[in-house]
Specification:
Structural class: alpha+beta
Number of strands: 20
Order of helices and strands: HHEHHEHEEEEEEEEHHEEEEHHEEEEEHE
Strand content: 15-25%
CATH topology: Double-stranded beta-helix
CATH architecture: 4-Layer Sandwich
Number of helices: 10
Number of domains: 1
Length: 408
Amino acid sequence: MATATYVTTPPALAPPGQPDISYHPDPAKYQARRDRRIKSGGLANSLPKGLPRQLTGKLVWEGDKLAETYEWTYVLEPNQLDEIDLAVKHFKSLGLSLGHISQQTFPLPRLHSELRRLSDELHNGHGFFVIRGLRVDEHSREENIIIYAGLSAHIAPKRGRQDKKFDGKPAAVTLSHIKDLSGPGNNAVIGSPAFTTDKQVFHTDSGDIVSLFALETAAEGGASKLASTWRVYNEIARTRPDLIHTLTGNWDIENFAERKFISRPLMYYQPATDSTPERVVLQYARRSLVGFGALPRSHNIPPITEAQAEALDTLHFLGEKFSVNTYFQKGDIQYVNNLALFHARDGFTNTAEKQRHLLRLWLRDPENAWETPEPLKWKWTQLYEGWSPEDEVFPLEPYIRTAGNKSG
């Protein structure tokens, strides 16, 4: 089957002075910009002071070779599925709201140690894994959400807030539905590819861990792609150290949910400590720099530079080069270290019988968590702090969250 790369959303209008770059990368424009900038000369030929020439460890991998050394799919056994079903019954018997789902209220006495081992793999191993075999069709929508949040509580117990309002009221929405909601009435407001069938280019989400649970897969396409930030860093450091300067410098990044922008780097270096290795962290979403659909980049934000435009495309095309495809099966849950890996998605086609529908959680495991870079700490506080279990909302049906909604 050919790779699905469907693009259905017209490009967002660029603000004055913005380089010729849009959400979906254009290889010809990238190559021309790269050649033009190299020919012009004057580019830094050494790395920023203190940054490594090469990172090493399990997080440095290439997708076409990874399966030779790493089995990333953890298949649940019948007795483990039975234990999960018992945990669902136990939680429902408590009569609590879904915000109270935790290791204590969703007990998994035998599976717990395996899930803690998998958390270690996220933070200190290859940076991702897939849990396979959940019996989605045997449970209601609410029960599947309970299972998802319950299993996740044993891997990374803090859930992150993905929206600050629901049904027009303040709330801590900690579950999102990733589903095509395009069509008449919505096309004029959708500003995120998550709610379309479009290809999603390489990016990170917010928070430490991003997780996706496949309630249903597409009729065709929709492959999830993961890439090692560390492998991409090594390649850029070797071939274009000037772009490491660009990535670690300040960028003006739009916050569509709050209609403002902040200035911060996309890439952060963390030196080794007595207990942790040296690390590189990447945090960015391309649409926050070039816009998407109904949410173009605002005219009151300085345009990105030619160097930044090249850096964005470099990240994307190297991500593609070194990525691995994790083809979702119905009932799969994928967990990804969002600080060490970045991800993308092929476009897809739905039918009446097969409509791609994922649930998403942003998570943090205080026991294993990486240090949050200083410029991101305010964001992490908004994600993980400041509400009670009673404030937490798990929508049962999809909606366009505020950050991807022009009318939000």
